[in-house]
Amino acid sequence: MTETASFIKNGAKTLGGLPLILVDGSNVAHSGNHEPKISHLHAVLEALSKFPVRILTMVDASLRHKIDNPVGLETLIETGRVVQAPAGRTVDEFLVQLARRKKGSGEDVYILTNDRFPDKHLGESRCRIAFLIVTVGKGEEVLFSPVIEYIVRSAVDSG
Question: What pTM did the predictor assign?
Answer without folding.
Answer: 0.85
